[in-house]
Design brief:
The complex is a heterodimer of chains A (about 350) and B (about 350). Chain A has about 350 residues and is mainly alpha-helical. Chain A contains 14 helices and two strands. In chain A, strands 1-2 form a two-stranded antiparallel ribbon. Chain B has two domains: about 150 residues, Rossmann fold (3-Layer(aba) Sandwich), CATH 3.40.50.2300; about 130 residues, Rossmann fold (3-Layer(aba) Sandwich). Helix content of chain B is about 40%, strand content about 15%. Chain B is built from ten helices and 14 strands. In chain B, strand 8, helix 8 and strand 9 form a beta-alpha-beta unit. The chains are: A mainly alpha (about 350), B alpha/beta (about 350). Chains A and B meet through helix 3, helix 5, helix 7, helix 11 and helix 13 of A and helix 1 and helix 3 of B.
């Protein structure tokens, strides 16, 4: 826990800082992602086309958006497993409200609000009552999904207006840049700035490293966490809307299991599950790496099961490798100390 | 936390205000026009004399992989693709979720397949992708469960309600020996498929050739093995003169056959209906069941591959009335809305049952 990443390190230890920057997992993952993209573009047929780019962006859209608040939550040492169910509930509500004859322009903000309310419930149970977030969000995972089925049952609502569904799957001016990429870039910038360039963002790392110490140094721990859950819920609600529009299908089972893909990507991006460590660029790279790898392997006709094996191994490796490098670095450091004292 | 409820309140009211403002005027269910979808229906004219192209890339995308029934279906497709000298490919998600198929469709588009044969997990969720595929000159054939009809070129319908109902009535007459009391052992009282088949069957029974046949009861085994078994038992207690039990459900027919085969009614009461050969094999071999029926899943995949090949070769476009030949199955005519009906269900008897493994 001594290795708290507060964004900037003191300049006195510049060469050491550079070395640890280069060997830190988030830079490794960035390089790895770049490598996968380059190799796949060269060796996998049809990978580097603009259409495939659009497909990939659409595939990573839900994961990357939900990963933005999830990164912050995990950095504070908590977790939110109810996101995919929140997505399902908003998708259901969207279909139901649409059937009631409300306009889509009204429905979209309502859906984001529903997501935020789901987050308020999580936030209250966790920070208000002090319950563990893992248990609470596993509970609301089942609860929100259940409510989604109450709202819409096994049915589906599909007749959403073409100009909205078409926007989500379309590209800017019919070119190579998907419309939703604007949304991803905008939200990633906002979350990135908040997390890495504001006092609020830095307080998250302090909370994750030691919540009690953070509390005594004047950080409002409970309040911060509460709002993270509200934001997480609102983003999940927004993704519920986008998901529904992308597939032009509002269903209660939409996004089932997505929470695991998100947590996997966040951990792969170098965020410590114990909190206090990790960066957003690493997470973004993690999401891109997972999506690009799956896309490339599918183009190479690798079966679904093998795909799961690859992503699973990658995840285990992402948890294993940073620990191994830390251990190796620790050993090396101790040996240097021993040599110094022997002299 | 102290200030948060107030902040929350203001956020909520602001959001509601926005919602209220936008409520006046906007796109609603009634005003939305959904005509924007790619409806690139049958653009080129069909050339009935066109030769079937060789080397066509035909990809199968079932609802989910590793399902025994699906394996038989796509197995039939593989045989057909080999006969067509094409390239067979099978891809599919491990879960039958609505959206997981979309990534696979996108991959198939990138690989420039000629034909995609798909069983849609959600008739609408796959639509935008399937239309992208069709825009990329890929022919889309659906089987098992259809996609919305404006995003596929043809649908292989395994059996019509009429066909199944007629077949059930015919087998009942045959198995009862032309006269006497018969009973139906169905699934649940509100099972859509079973009810519509039974309706057709009842209509058939009013015809003169069925005059001596009397349907005494429709029992419901709820597609539960034990309940179906007890219902079969109950039927024979209430109607000792029963000549045949007709079970239009695979669970019901297997349970009824198991009861009859172990009772004194064996050889006196016939069991027939819709069943799976692997479940029914022992009862056919011990003569409890003489004949039962089901569509042959292998033929579904086989027909789908041939339909796709005919379409990709420009022989047919999917318009009503066009004809094509599907190898060993013979000639087919495309029906309304691009539907191709497989034909009457396959009947299984002691003689042919060992040829089927599903």
């Amino acid at each position: 826990m001594s290795d708290i990443d507060l964004g900037k390190r003191p300049s006195a230890n510049r060469s050491g800082a550079l070395k640890s920057r280069l060997t830190s997992w988030d830079s490794i993952i960035l390089v790895l992602t770049g490598l996968v993209l380059v190799i796949a573009s060269i060796s996998v047929d049809n990978f580097g086309t603009s259409r495939n780019f659009t497909f990939m962006v659409l595939d990573l859209l839900p994961i990357i958006l939900i990963a933005l608040p999830m990164t912050m939550i995990i950095v504070t040492g908590e977790i939110d497993l109810s996101v995919a169910s929140t997505l399902g509930l908003t998708s259901s509500m969207m279909g139901w409200l649409w059937n009631q004859g409300l306009s889509i322009e009204t429905i979209i903000p309502i859906c984001v609000l529903i997501g935020a309310i789901c987050g308020v419930v999580n936030g209250f149970l966790i920070t208000g009552l002090g319950l563990p977030s893992l248990a609470v969000t596993i509970g609301t995972l089942a609860l929100y999904r259940g409510l989604a089925f109450v709202v819409l049952g096994d049915g589906a609502v599909a007749d959403f207006p073409w100009n909205y569904t078409g926007w989500v799957t379309g590209t800017i001016g019919g070119g190579a840049v998907p419309n939703v990429l604007i949304l991803i870039v905008a939200l990633a910038l906002i979350f990135g700035i908040v997390q890495h360039a504001t006092p609020f963002g830095r307080s998250l790392y302090a909370i994750g490293a030691n919540a009690q110490a953070a509390h005594f140094s004047g950080i409002r721990v409970a309040r911060t966490k509460f709002w993270l859950y509200v934001v997480s819920g609102a983003v999940a609600g927004l993704v519920g809307v986008l998901w529904t529009l992308r597939y032009s299908s509002a269903r209660a089972d939409n996004g089932a299991g997505l929470e695991l893909a998100v947590v996997a990507a966040v951990l792969l991006g170098g965020v410590s599950i114990f909190g206090g460590k990790g960066s957003l660029p690493g997470v973004l790279a993690g999401v891109v790496l997972l999506t690009a790898l799956q896309n490339a392997l599918r183009l190479e006709d690798v079966s679904g099961q093998a795909l799961n094996i690859v992503t699973g191994s990658l995840l285990v490796l992402s948890v294993l490798l940073p620990n191994v490098t830390t251990a190796v670095r620790g050993n090396w450091h101790r040996r240097k100390l021993r040599q110094a004292s022997a002299r | 936390m102290l200030r948060s409820p107030r902040t929350l309140l203001s956020v909520t009211s602001a959001a509601l205000l926005v919602a209220g403002l936008t409520a006046c005027g906007g796109t609603t269910k009634d005003s939305a026009s959904n005509t924007g979808g790619d409806s690139n229906q049958a653009s080129a004219a069909a050339d009935p004399n066109a030769a079937i192209k060789e080397g066509l890339k035909i990809a199968f995308l079932p609802k989910q992989l590793n399902n025994p029934y699906t394996d038989v279906e796509v197995g039939g497709g593989k045989v057909a693709v080999e006969e067509l000298k094409g390239e067979y490919k099978l891809v599919g998600p491990n879960d039958a979720s609505a959206s997981s198929q979309v990534s696979y469709i996108n991959t198939l588009i990138q690989q420039q397949q000629d034909v995609i044969v798909v069983a849609a997990n959600d008739p609408n969720a796959v639509c935008p992708s399937l239309n992208q595929a069709r825009a990329a000159k890929i022919k889309v054939i659906t089987f098992d469960s259809d996609a919305s009809k404006d995003c596929r070129d043809a649908f292989i319908n395994q059996a019509t309600t009429q066909g199944i109902g007629e077949s059930l009535a015919k087998m009942a007459l045959e198995q009862a020996g032309g006269e006497g009391e018969i009973a139906v052992l169905s699934a649940t009282p509100n099972a859509t498929n079973q009810n519509s088949w039974i309706e057709v069957m009842k209509t058939e029974l009013k015809k003169p050739e069925y005059a001596k046949l009397k349907l005494v009861k429709v029992a419901y085994g709820n597609d539960d093995d034990q309940k179906s078994f007890q219902e079969a038992q109950g039927l024979l207690q209430s109607y000792p003169n029963l000549k045949a039990i007709v079970a239009p459900t695979t669970v019901g027919i297997a349970a009824a056959a198991r009861y009859i085969s172990s009772s004194s009614y064996k050889g006196k009461v016939a069991v027939t209906g819709l069943g799976l050969p692997n479940q029914m094999r022992e009862y056919v071999k011990d003569d409890t069941v003489k004949k039962f029926a089901l569509w042959n899943p292998a033929d579904i995949g086989y027909l789908a591959a041939f339909a796709g090949a005919a379409m990709a070769s420009g022989k047919v476009t999917g318009a009503e009335g066009e004809k094509f030949t599907a190898g060993k199955l013979g000639e087919y005519t495309i029906g309304a809305d691009g539907e191709i009906v497989l034909g009457p269900p396959t009947e299984f008897t002691k003689e042919n049952i060992d040829k089927f493994n599903f």
